[in-house]
Amino acid sequence: MAEDLATLIKTGLKTRFIGREIIYLPSVTSTMDAARDEALNGAAEGTVIIAGEQTAGRGRLKRRWLAPEGNISLSIVLHPDTKNLPYLIMIASLAVVKSIKRTAGAAGQIKWPNDVLIDGKKVCGILIENEMRGNNVAYSVMGIGINVSLKVNDYNEIAQTATSLFADRIVLIRALLEEFDVLYQKLPDGNVIYKDWRNNLVTLGKKVKATWGKQIIEGVAENVDEDGALIIRGEDGTLTKVVAGDVTLQ
Fold first, then answer.
1. Between 1 and 16, whose confidence is greater?
2. Using CA atoms, how far apart are residues 58 and 250, in angstroms rounded to an integer?
3. Could you tell me which residue, 56 or 35, shows the higher pLDDT?
4. pLDDT of 83 over the 60 cut
5. 61 has a pLDDT exceeding 50
6. CA proximity to 26, closest of 58, 60, 53, 61
7. Residue 189 CB neighbours (<10 A)
8. Which one, 98, 123, 141, 206, has least CB within 10 Å?
C-alpha cells in the first residue's frame, strides 16, 4: 500500500528533482525526524517523506501539530546554499498558496512568518530545520502540514482558529511538489520569489502583536525585507525589525 501511494503521487509528477524519490510511511512520529535521518544517510536533494499520520508532529516554537490520518504531512530534504536560506520559507508558503489555488480553487494568504490562511483561518503550517557545518548548510528539512478533510470542530484547541480543505490529497500533494520545484529552481535569484511572497502576505498593513522571547511589540506591520524579517512601526513611530517570533493579527 505504501509503495502504491508513493507511485500514485509520482505518476504524472512533472518535477526536475523534488519528489523524484518519495518515501511513504503509514505512521510516524514526525516526518521531520524521518527526513533528517534520510538526510544523514545521504538522501538526494528533493527526497520527500510523506506520512499517513503523525503521532508527534510539531510546529514552530515546539508547538504540537495535529496530523491525524488523511491530513497532508510531508517533509522535503534540501541541500541549499547558505545565501538561499531566507528564501526557503518563502518558496514553501508560495508553493502551498499556488497549489491550493490550482487544485481546490481556494485563495490562500500567507501570514508571517510561516502560516497559510483561508478566510482568516489557518490551513497550513510550515517548519524548517537547518543543520549547519561551519558556514555551510549540511542539509535543510522543510516540513509542510496541510489540513485536508479535517473536522476541526472535533479539536477544541484549533476549532476557532483553523480550517480545512476538502480536496483530493494525492492531486494536491503532486501540485505542491511541482510548484515547489518550479520556485526552487529560480534560485539563486531570489528577488522574484521575495516579491511574489511579499505580495501574498496578509500581514502587511495590519495591526499586529509580535512576541519573541520576553519581548513584545505592537504596531503596524509596515514591510518585510528580502531576508524575510518583518518591519513593524510602533505607536511612537519607531521601526523594529523582527527576525523570528510569533505574530498575532489585531
1. 16
2. 25
3. 35
4. yes
5. no
6. 53
7. 10
8. 206
- Whether 94 contacts 176, CB under 8 Å: no
The reported pTM is 0.92
Confidence at 67, pLDDT banded by 50, 70, 90: low
Contacts of 92 (CB under 8 A, 6+ apart): 114, 126, 128, 142, 144, 180
C-alpha cell at 7: 507511485
Amino acid at site 72:
I
Alpha-helix runs per DSSP H in 185-238 = 191-199
Among all chains, which residue has been given the C-alpha cell 476541526? 152
The grid coordinates listed for 144 are 509542510
Q: Report the side by side order of strands in the sheet with 207-212.
A: 239-242, 230-234, 215-224, 207-212, 246-249
Rounded distance between C-alpha atoms, residue 22 and residue 74, angstroms: 10
Q: Which amino acid is at 83?
A: K
Q: How far is the CA of 157 from the CAs of 20, 54, 132, 149, in angstroms?
A: 36, 17, 34, 17
